[in-house]
Design brief:
Layout (H helix, E strand, L loop, with lengths): L8 H6 L2 H4 L4 H9 L4 E5 L2 E10 L6 E8 L9 E3 L2 H4 L5
Length: 91
């Protein structure tokens, strides 16, 4: 995976799908530390992973995983304190 927290949108778009894939768990953890947002699809379901989110204004930052494109999106929210916990997410 190409690792650059400060790349432009144009630079990101130029990479191939294979270059955008995580090669290791460390790549995913690095992405979460840098605040990278991830989208993945499994079958006909799509999910978003959003690091550095606050469930409430006074809450500590967490990682949010949510199913996208569903009418009850807020009911699919799962909050995690660490990338390791987020990696345990079950579809």
């Amino acid at each position: 995976m190409y690792n650059n927290c400060f790349e432009t949108e144009e630079e990101r778009i130029k990479r191939t799908i294979e270059e955008n894939r995580f090669k290791t768990i460390s790549d995913f953890k690095w992405c979460m530390r840098c605040g990278g947002e991830v989208e993945f699809c499994w079958g006909d379901r799509c999910f978003g992973v959003f690091p550095k989110m606050n469930k409430t204004p006074e809450a500590a930052q967490q990682i949010l995983i949510v199913e996208k494109f569903v009418p009850n999106q807020d009911e699919t929210e799962r909050w995690y304190d660490t990338a390791d916990e987020a990696l345990e997410f079950n579809i």
